[in-house]
Amino acid sequence: MLEIKSEEKVREGSIYGQITSLGHEQLVMCYDEPTGLKTIIAIHNTVLGPALGGTRMWNYASEEEAITDVLRLSRGMTFKAAISGLNIGGGKAVLIGDPKLKNEAYLRRFGRFINSLGGRYITAEDVNMKTSDMEYIAMETKYVTGLPEVRGGGGDPSPVTAYGTYLGMKAAAKKAFGSDNLSGKKIAVQGIGQVGKYLVGYLVKENAQVFITDIFEDRLKQVSKETGATVVDPNAIYDIDMDIYAPCALGATVNDQTIDRLKCKVIAGGANNQLQDEAVHGKLLLEKGIIYAPDFLINAGGLINVYAEYLGGYNRENTYKHAEKIYDICTAILEKSEKENIPSQQAAIEMAWNRIESIGKVKLPY
Ligand code: NAD
Fold first, then answer.
1. Quick one: which of 7, 23, 139, 175 is 20 to 30 A from 263 by CA?
2. Alpha carbon of 51 to those of 29, 81, 87, 130, 139: distances in Å?
3. Is 92 known to be catalytic?
4. Is 253 inside a domain boundary?
């Protein structure tokens, strides 16, 4: 069985130590002098299929930070794909530098590096990457998804991510409150970017009492005007009287500092890696009786969207139908968590890992 190690333990190792403790297959570092491209591609697990996961561009403070990020994110993709029933593995790429570095040559060079992996890694968008960037990458490799709809792609995955997050939130609400009806529930959405704003739309439609926060004031004003949601200061969001906390901005917001401040009964949001340390904070939430909808499951709509594109013949309606399975999977995870008295994140990882192990065995005999 897969051991969930604390962040502290993972980080104290060498690069090989980290790869070994997180279970990666491959870590590739690439450099191109003319374009200034520095990229790290992590392939976590390819038992179910090629590693599919987005590329994040970020001005990392250090190489160590970039490596930690790509290792953590790619591992999350393995579990996300496995728990969602997709036949792909987990991978991720990071581009190190200011997003302003991006241009056609830079992105095409990146495409060539991806191509050199022969299909073991397939990319898509993540932070600071757009569908138009994927078009440049596609000039050099076929191992790219997240292309615009006019090019036969699935377009922006965020609406599907938000839909899955909304359904996962409803499943968690059913467990916590006995009903999945969100009408009247006080819900705090942290970050109203691509995912958050669509999520707010679903919540308002269901007559939830929605509170929003973001570091962009103009965005807050706009979404508040359009939806009637109440604006809260970014630092005050953890302290408000709420039933559900929906992190939709950064990761690691559920940590030693915030857990005691959160008065909610449910945490369900679209952000990746919400638990600062899944070995520690999942347990704390269980002890506090807060129902946690595992992030990598309920935000899997975006991956489901690019997976549909990867299979070919993208169809938006079918993709939304596929994302609807998140409700039942979330329910099953929360039931396992309750029955075995284990954190829901652990329950989800165990379910994902069981699928990888059992399908791996199916593939053995030819
Ligand atoms: P985004 O950049 O469009 O939105 C993030 C929002 O969070 C921005 O409006 C930003 O201003 C705000 N923000 C940043 N720091 C904040 C803070 N301290 N307090 C409050 N708000 C803050 O990104 P997105 O595409 O909406 O993704 C949001 C999260 O969901 C990320 O963690 C991402 O990895 C995850 N995710 C996104 C998708 C997708 O389809 N877009 C899929 C899976 C997971």
1. 7
2. 16, 9, 10, 20, 20
3. yes
4. yes
